[in-house]
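Exercise 7.
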Amino acid sequence: MPIGPTTYFGKERVFVDREACIQAFRENIQNSGTKEYNVLFYYGIAGIGKSKLQKELQKMLDEEYPEVVWAAIDLNTKTYRESGTFLITLRNKIQEKSKAKFYLFNIAHAIYWKKLHPEIPLLIENYPLIKEGKFFSKMIDALNEFGPARLVWDIINNAPDNVRRILKEQAIYINVLTAMEAPEIEKLLPGFFAADFTDYLGTDSKAYIFIDTYEALWEGLRDKGSFHEKDEWIRDNLIPNMPGVSWIVCGREKLLWVPECDPDWDMYLEQRQVDELPESYCQEFLEDCGIENKEIRDIIIKASERVPYYLNLSVDTFEKITKKRQPTPEDFGKTQPKIFDKFVKYLEGNEIRALKVLSAPNFWDRELFEILMKKFDTGFPAGAFSELIKFSFIKRDANGKYSIHQLMRKSLQEYQDSTDKKNTHQFLLAYYSNKIEDLDIKAITPEHETALTEAFYHAKEALEAEDLLNWFISASDPFYRAAFWQLITPMYEENLQILEAELGPQHPSVAT
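Solution. The predicted structure, written as tokens, is:
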């Protein structure tokens, strides 16, 4: 991207397509009262537009359903991934739109915080909940002293009637909480939060909670403990304690709550994939952003693989170039560093290394995956095939072959060591060449044709021009003798083009 000043508040860019996703949300609103629990999960690769979709859905609630109380949390903010901070932030957002009180949760969280930081006094500078009122300030004073639970109960008994009613009806056992350690109390916080929320809104009012960047809960933790324990506090402790509330969640990978956690989620969880934009909508978006040159638009769309994040980056590039000169088609179509960063965010180092290796073949199956993982020192277990294919950027075709989303694949290939890249292609060249060695021309199968095609692809990356031609003449000989002209003629012609480009049209290897 060209260097230039950043535009922070430019023209808002048009929101296009996503009719199916929006319709799913409308139906969710209409049916929200028919299910005790209601989770709508949108998933898709990085940059596909999930966050923008959430904002559009929130805008829809404001404009068409003003009676609905909603709040949104983005787990891209690292501190929100800790349940206590998540709930405090959610509480604040809910209170911005309603008069909900969280007496029970506030007390439990204060005890939790004090247990977590026994050396730090609860002051307004480091614990903003103190602003909740005189009653809560007295509670804080008692907790700072960490006196007997009886003192806290005396404060509760002298609290206003509405506070005393809530606390006694919910049966918060202060003496039990003060005897607990911080991790034990943390597990109870979602339940306390839910009890206060339900006490205010009931179980039949319409309320929506949005969670974005759900995959961030696993950042740096994929290889630690159980996979499903990372979101257990949301899945098992928060949502089930808030009947009647609808949850709109966005993440990169499809949730595996069914059947790996509880088959009952099948009744309450709906999942929708967010796909690439149709080309017509890409054209509409770029035109609306002021890119009138169709050749430039076509290059951007082809390079973007119709992923909105890439389209937006290209518009940024267009706008910065326009401030200095007229943009040309040559300015576009390149892989941008921000794309690679976006794709690999929240991935572990061994996952990134494994994906770089897997970006070399056009496709792979379990056998080839295991061979590559054993051959190259990625640190990713050869036996973890089923874990890798859960990622939304891994595509499976009708023949059971797997591949990486093309935009991500290009980024992985671009941002890897050239020697490592060539070594992978050399290995794959040998792998596929072995499949067509000593081939009987009467026994050629479609699998052999595929092997030649893939071997030729890797040979172009691994060999110099003359070596490529010599290899091809030898490898394609059985197909030549079997008259597979339609298969080998385009490869031969491409060989000549490569030779001419590298050696010149007068070179003997080209002229003959």
